[in-house]
Amino acid sequence: MNFDENINRYNTNSLKYDFKSAKNKPNNVFPMWVADMDFKCCEEILEDMHKKIEHGIFGYSKEDEEYFKSIQKWYINNFNIKLKKDWLITTPGVVFALATAVKTLTLENDYVIINNPVYYPFTEVIEDNKRKVISSDLVLKDNHYEIDFIDLENKIKQYDVKLYLLCSPHNPVGRVWRKDELDKIVEICKKYNVYIVSDEIHSDFVWSGKHISMLNYEDYQNNIILCTAPTKTFNLAGLQVSNIFIPNEKIRKEFQLQVWNTGYSLINIMGLTACKSAYEKGQKWLNELKKYLFDNINYVDNFLKKNLPKIKLIYPEGTYLLWLDFNDLNLSDDKIEELMLNDAKLWLDSGKIFGKKGTGFQRLNIALPRQKLKWAMEQLEKTFKEY
Question: Looking at the structure, do residues 229 and 377 belong to the same domain, yes or no?
Answer without folding.
Answer: no
